[in-house]
Fold these 4 entries.
Entry 1:
Amino acid sequence: MWGTGEAYEPFMGRWSRLVAAELVRRLGLPPGLDWLDVGCGTGAVTRQILRAAAPAGVTGVDRSEDYVRHARRHVRDPRAHFVCGDATRLPLPDAGAGAAVSGLVLNFVPDPARAAAELVRVVRPGGTVAVYLWDYADDGMGLLCRFWEAATALDPLNRASDERARFPLCGRGPLQALLTGGGLAGVEVTAISVPTVFRDFADYWEPFLGGQGPAPGYVASLEPPHRAALRDRLRATLPRSTDGSIPLTARAWAGTGHRPGP
């Protein structure tokens, strides 16, 4: 589902970076910490940590070798290090980091409870864990909600593919329960909203042709006439500004807490 960095960046990476920047700002952690970026993908979160948190170092972990190669090519800061690994079995020592962040990952992990426990394990007592996931509610992740509204209007039997139904973890209550169950103390879940403004319809539509994630995967499964019908419906129903841009917003749920201990 996720595996090619060049396709991920225009589809989701550019928006994930906006959420990551706000999350790092809100955390307000002191400089000089060792950070972990679990499910680092193309390095979107790592870039924001390097830019805003003055870390001693950041280790990014992702199970996709292509993502790790992409991150190594594009994040050249010597404080950053990227390795392949599974979020449920992190190749990292206990209590080795001051902070661990995971962006847009846990809803795609087969065992999110185990991944949450791993995030707690790898930070030292008192260390911070932060996780964010898109809010797939009707007014949450606009670019995907609009997509699935058009897709299910053309094919009502396809509702099972809609991310709004597939990812119940992506809500305030479920995310808080997951992180608390993983061993975090003082868990808080707050919303982060960011603008997702597309230059024109091509800027919106073309990333869906990259095959990365549930929605682009669905597009790839369509026969050409059905794909064209979906494209045309979206072109007709998306909001437009006078300059032709498409103004949407995206909301993420961000959960933060700390590992108990002195």
Entry 2:
Amino acid sequence: MKEFHEYRSVYPHEELLARLRRIRHVALDMDGTIYMGMSLFAWTQPFLAELRELGIGYSFLTNNPSKSIADYLRKLESLGIRATREEMYTTTLATIDYLREHHPSARRLFLLGTPSMVAEFEAAGFVPTADSPDDRPDAVVVAFDMTLCYDRLCRAAWWISQGLPYIATNPDRVCPTDQRTVLVDCGSICACLEHATGRRPDITLGKPDPNMLTGILTRHGLQPDQIAMVGDRIYTDVQMAHNAGAMGVLVLSGETTLEVADQADPQPHLTADHIGILGRLLREAHGR
């Protein structure tokens, strides 16, 4: 195991600080990074205050499409964080953007997802189809569905087996939780469907797809080396940063252990115990 005390980087310390000085925006994963379940980490509010003091913007990204933007904003507010719709980007929005660009004629969708997710698609002008072999959709969208019903899982498998466009919102196998259970996520549901149909999704959106960062870069007029993607997963958060040419920061406050981080290839640009350590390094980089 490599030496580790609060943080480590692939860069020498002075080069790390130079790279951190270029950061103008921080994209923050949510579960496992700023909170766990319904518990806000003690370092989250001081970290956000540090970013504001340094003039560094931030956005909240999540691979979890089970809630609407309004749901997430309410959750953040209940934890003491006030955010705007423009500061949120979920895989539901990424999927809507993808459908509009790549399947512009698709309006009727079989949606394997929560009512909150379905409502977000309806608000965007899509029509959810019924659980009926006579109500043929234009495409199938499979997501993290905490209301998963066996009949609807079987209907999704049927439409997938018929060759309809098949989109997965995110690759996550499980969703982080502070409860004593395992929350089976979209990647595991898709594995079940693959076993039943022999077919994988045509595309899996969400992290590590770099398009999750493209909107932020465009919105704020940033270059990839001016944004840091911070999260608790190597195969989504850190991999997306590498895919987008951004700085990838792994925090050990969620899913990934130090032992797993040691085996990562490529390595995170920075691995830290939690986002509070990143805040301290940013402050040092700016001579505060």
Entry 3:
Amino acid sequence: MGHSEKEIWTDRGIRLFCLAFSGLAPTLCSKLLYYKAFGRKLDLKSPRTLNEKLMWLKLNTYRDNVLITQCVDKYAVRSYIREQGCKEILNDLIGVWDKPSEIPFPELPQRFVLKCNHGCGYNIICQDKDLMDQQNVMCTLKKWLQEDFWRRYAEINYRHVPKKIICEAYIEDRQQKVPVDYKFYCFNGHAKYVMACAHRDEDYVKYYFFNRKWQLERINPASVAAPPGFTLPKPARLEEMFAYADRLSAPFPFVRVDLYAADNRIIFGELTFTPAAALDTNRLPETDQMFGGILEIPLNKESL
């Protein structure tokens, strides 16, 4: 087992190298990161695994692509969702600002979510505004806005995103629980698998893969370890969710479409083009090979 992308980021030497050279030499940085994660060279001439093919797409088809830039932007992607005729699944937008000092905290609802739009992990979930440390929130947002997220793992698909802060409605079901997060793995415009995230409101999270018929696919550690006959409750609107994922993924060789199911409503989460920065060491090697075999990529470097 290699090092995950988060573990790699703790390596000071690699971190400094990528921060300095991701813009000048993204391929070299990607090769270094891949070797650190997997202990083998990155094959960009004949990529076979999903991680390898996502690295290739990141450095070629997805590189400096206007549509990709729009869709990795957590604010601009809302326009793409509307353009695809899916505005009904957008979460309510409370506000968008360029800097923390512009946020009208007294006007915000009691529960909300603040996000920076230019990367991953930039989320502040407020469940009770009265208990929120406003000054700490503002300092955190300011720090995030100063970061060039794309430099961490040479994810140049994020490079041209104009940095903003957005506020969206807090998502919960009627029991005031965090809804299940469904991540649809879409290959060449077809959502083939969905990964359901369970126990998100507890101290641990487990992920299980299902096919379009909601049959467990034993292709990741939790699914492999699940007892015979294991399943999770089937979402009431599963077929519609797959249809949304198909429609939203249509222009792309690969994208993961994240959706929430809150009671009887489907809510869009985000589009992810390079899950785990294409350094997913938690994916079973045989699954990485299988996913790579499903994904067809334009090796002639043609754009979308």
Entry 4:
Amino acid sequence: MAHDYYHIPADQLGEGAKIPLEVLGDSGEIFYEMALTMVEEIEAHNARDEKTVFICPVGPVGQYPIFVRLVNERNVSLKKCWFINMDEYLTDDDEWIDAADALSFRGFMERTVYSKIRPELVVPEEQRIFPDPTDPGRVGRVIDELGGVDIAFGGIGITGHLAFNEPDPELSVEEFAALDTRVLSIHPETRATNCIGDLGGALEDMPHRCVTIGMKEILGARKVRLGVFRDWHRAVARRAAYGEVTAAFPATLLQNHPDAKIFVNSVAAGQAY
């Protein structure tokens, strides 16, 4: 059965959407918007001597070089920041892949973010949180201790997944929204899509397992800001913002969030078909 929302033209995208869609130009505009949002939130909290808690993705990633530059140029202290990463790939034995692996999100954050920020400004190591397959409950405990997440940043996967919260049509919306940090298998569609961008199509070398924060943590953030960039995001963004709320397409659950927004570049704004 065809769905009318896939046929919404670019110049009408966002009209009547159940999640606000902000259509920008090229991807650089979205990356800058996300980086500036991070910096301004931190600056506002620093001015009040308050901590800042973010959920951070590795995908999208283009915001990080801009964020690093702004932090260093504007002398923004990250000493009262907690960065909680969304997820990490696992071995078949459910252990973190090596941080030196090109696919490692832990390694990416160190190479691209933490090592590039001036030492007197950078987030303290103990405040860089990654979901741990040996103690998945730690993320929830940290968030509770900190009083919640200020902003959850991220993207949307081909199956509508946020972090690695893959669809589960057998669950009700309420049950799916209550899922917390856990280890799970990655859907074949996600592995195939990710291997194109990350491994040049080497599907056999893509991990099958991951640890991910849950929908509970994402939906519990005070704000959610997502960016979409690719041609297949034309359909993903439209279903997320206009489709039925369902555990079969996790991003639709953001329709029930009080302060969620999706930044859409000119490619993803195009009509799906």
